[in-house]
Automatic annotation (TrEMBL):
Residues 63-125, 314-378 form the Nitrite/Sulfite reductase ferredoxin-like domain. Residues 134-292, 391-496 form the Nitrite/sulphite reductase 4Fe-4S domain. It comes from Prochlorothrix hollandica PCC 9006 = CALU 1027. This is Ferredoxin--nitrite reductase. One of its GO terms (molecular function) is 4 iron, 4 sulfur cluster binding. NCBIfam families: CobG, PRK09566.1. It is an enzyme of class 1 (oxidoreductase).
Amino acid sequence: MTQTASTPTKLNKFEKFKAEKDGLAVKAELEHFAQIGWEAMDETDRDHRLKWLGIFSRPVTPGRFMLRLRTPSGETNSQRLRVLGEILQPYGDEGSADITTRQNLQLRGIRLEDVPNIFRRLEEAGMTSMQSGMDNVRNITASPVAGLEADELLDTRELVQQVQDMITNGGEGNPEFTNLPRKFNIAIEGSRDNSVHAEINDIAFVPAYREGILGFNVLVGGFFSSTRCAPAIPLEAWVEPNQQVVDLCRAILEVFRDQGSRANRQRSRLMWLIDELGLDGFRAAVAAKLSWDLLSGAAEDEITWEKRDHLGVHPQKQAGLNYVGLLVPVGRLNAADFLELARLAEVYGKGEVRLTVEQNVIIPHVPDSRLEALLQEPLLATFTTTPSPLVRSLVSCTGAQFCNFAMVETKQRALDIAQELEAELDFPRSVRMHWTGCPNSCGQPQVADIGMLGTKARGADGKPTEGVDIYMGGKVGKDAQLGSRVMKGIPCDTLKSVLQDLLIKEFGATLKG
Ligand code: SRM
Ligand code: SF4
């Protein structure tokens, strides 16, 4: 690590344990951990370093781990889903999974003694969980319909894979990028609708023409944290849609790794470094690492559409084929769902499956002739193509069921309240409601029409109770904007009536007759 003026004199506790032993080092010890069991493990290895391999100990479910994969561009297939279903099956009711807000998958209920074998199975099926947690680059997001839609500007899947391979050394683990000052998010958009929420990524590539050539404008520094939320800002740079993207990611990561603050973890995300160096200084530090000239940004980008949710049936650019978006309520799946999705993708498509940042699933390549039969499949009664107006756009973080940061239970509550409101109201359009269990904002309440952020509240009797802060004004797609907090500390047991009011006043909902 290069010493710079910003190198702290005092390291935070995470930096101390990282300096003692790199997170990736536990990769070589997995068999040993499996043998001795989680109870006997060194606590820092168990509760922190394992996250470098995507293995998260869950204090809420002791001895049952969460496994976060990497699913670049949200692209997976029936063979992989079958393997994931088979991994979960032996865990019975304790095994489950979630599609995440970074179009990724997390498995739950995992026992540590099974991990070496699980890792072998993941590798055989071409999956990895490497560097998916802690101070690493998260799953790289892209349009979930890359390569499928006629109007797409760039099919970014290969680029996304190249960036992931650079960062993780092809999924083996790459010590060059395992000790960032903090987590890091990258998105590469190839469509016109900003399907990735470019504005909330540390680096986002958005399509833009410069002198008639299609490439990407680059945004940097977008992030949410409990103390600050900042939209990404233009780096004033344009890159070609090729190795330049990979090079630029590497250069930015190196600058962040070497110059980012390691003193206070609440001030360590990339935007804090951009603040410190100034945008020009940051850009110059990045440009100095490149062997080619970093060009100025294009005057405008090509994000010109409203954001789509990709649910329902949509014709593909390949004549006679369709992609079919299925709603997975708040992203929750079980073993049987994986196996059934795998079967449907093979019988009706070509085995391909895509995931979305709205925590849903897409089955591509369904011929016109097989559409009707797919729509009649029993799984589509639950994972419907025609969801009701609130459940359609519902997004929720993990919440108290599995996450010890949570102030409130989220997923089930989100579904229950949405369904109760749907029973009482008619809606002229879908309303995007996002739930997040604490100020870390994994469920992105700031991008929602109405966002709920878990907090402590006071009930009518004055006693502490579960509550939420309400966010409004999030705008996605073109001209994306973050919403802001409009109400504080609403007790969960009075929330439904508050939401009913908001839906009527602000979104044109009407009471059912
Ligand atoms: Fe997150 C930490 C879950 C997307 C901001 N996030 C956590 C942990 C790992 C905390 C923990 O150890 O328990 C949560 C694991 C709970 C569990 O058991 O699932 C967790 N985050 C999630 C997921 C699963 C939410 C979901 O249900 O979809 C998402 C996984 C994405 C993935 O596939 O990698 C997830 N997290 C996000 C996002 C949204 C995004 O990327 O678009 C954000 C806000 C954007 C950002 O990062 O700037 C987000 N998560 C955080 C933060 C606050 C970061 C900060 O700078 O302070 C934390 C806490 C931290 O890192 O210290 C956090
Ligand atoms: Fe856990 Fe909070 Fe993230 Fe929800 S927002 S998953 S409660 S850390």
